[in-house]
Amino acid sequence: MPKDDLQVMRELMENHREGFALDRHFYTSEAVYDHDIKMFWNRNWIWVGHVSQVPEPGNYFLFDYGPESVIVVRDREGEVRAHLNVCRHRGSRVCLEKQGTARVFSCPYHAWTFGLDGKLRGGRAMGPDFDPSDYGLFPVQVQIFQGLIFICADENPPPLADSLDRLAPLSAPMGLENLKLAHEASYPVPANWKLALENYLECYHCAPSHQDYSRSHSLKDPADVEKYGADLRERSASIGLPVEELDLTGPNAQAPGSDVYWRRYPLFPGYQTGSKDGEPLAPPLGALSGHDGGATDLAIGTLNYFLIYADHLVGYRFVPRGLQETDIQIAWYVRGDAEEGRDYDKEVLTWLWHVTSLDDERIIRHNQEGVNSHRFAPGPLSEMEWSLPGFYRSYFNMI
Ligand code: FES
Ligand SMILES: [Fe+2]
């Protein structure tokens, strides 16, 4: 009997050579893709937005990945909750609008009606034995860290609380609970979600592929990070931001999927933030008193990445839509009281990560095209791709 795709996947995992890329099978098999959604996406924390996007009871938005759709809503008591967007009658999507304000969610098919808390209010003509309390929307777990909303479809999500407790004092000066969404964009790329995520995780490609990014960010060369890092410490301290690292990844993580990583690195001299001309883009975040010319890499879990400058936060997700269809979703946040036109210009604010994402879309697409070739075999990773083996380990651990 021929081996099935998941057996092949398991053998490839067992025989994986440390320090090498993954076999093409991980990016080309429908069975592996379905398995990724089930074992990795459904069981990991996914960052979906910020509490400021659902300020009032009834405000909601949808977050979709793979075949799943999740309603993120603020309920009557003011709690942020999440429910699977799947009717418990015959499975229709319950909520069709991407975002809005609702008093209840009424299924468009046969009009079963659910409260903001997910409880079924009533099913039409269901007879005397029908108990609505058996048919509430499936709950999705919610975790909020300083205003950032994470969801997990599994009943037993990876434990994050301890790691987030350790992160909290480091990010406190940035006032992340007080942010405002300035812009969101989605860059569809015809590639497997892992190729998009791996591309984000390494900066080996930054020098050849990202001219604009490379002018301002030191990461493409470890020697530059070293060289400008000492200065950054002083500048950061002077605006009220202590420079400490926190690496709770890999063996330091509490459990698979509980990784947290925090590190500030220097921009090149002349750059106060991630702007085209080096000039500030928005008022400093939180309690910061100015711009330090640094950028913080923040990872929470294995799917959620943030880059925090002194005056804005950029969040990244690499959302699977199909085996070789991924949306690179990027969201830009500024301080809660910043006003467009007065305190920031949306075009100017989003310029860097817009052009950088267009570059990424192109290189990831070509990456997938090459990986689809029957002759592709994984090559060795460079030292500058140090974060990839860690991702492969987390991935193997969970699938
Ligand atoms: S599928 Fe929702 S009411 Fe029938
Ligand atoms: Fe890139």
Can you walk me through this structure?
This protein folds into two domains: 46-144, Rieske [2Fe-2S] iron-sulphur domain (Rieske Iron-sulfur Protein); 160-398, Naphthalene 1,2-dioxygenase Alpha Subunit, Chain A, domain 1 (Alpha-Beta Complex), CATH 3.90.380.10. Helices cover 28% and strands 25% of the residues. The protein is built from ten helices and 17 strands. It has helices at residues 5-14, 25-28, 30-41, 161-171, 193-201, 206-209, 211-216, 222-238, 346-371, 387-398; strands at residues 46-50, 59-65, 68-74, 80-84, 99-101, 105-106, 113-114, 120-122, 139-145, 148-152, 179-189, 246-248, 260-266, 294-300, 304-308, 313-322, 325-335. Helix 5 (193-201) crosses helix 9 (346-371). It is globular and about 75 Å long. The mean pLDDT is 96. The chain binds FE2/S2 (inorganic) cluster and fe (ii) ion.
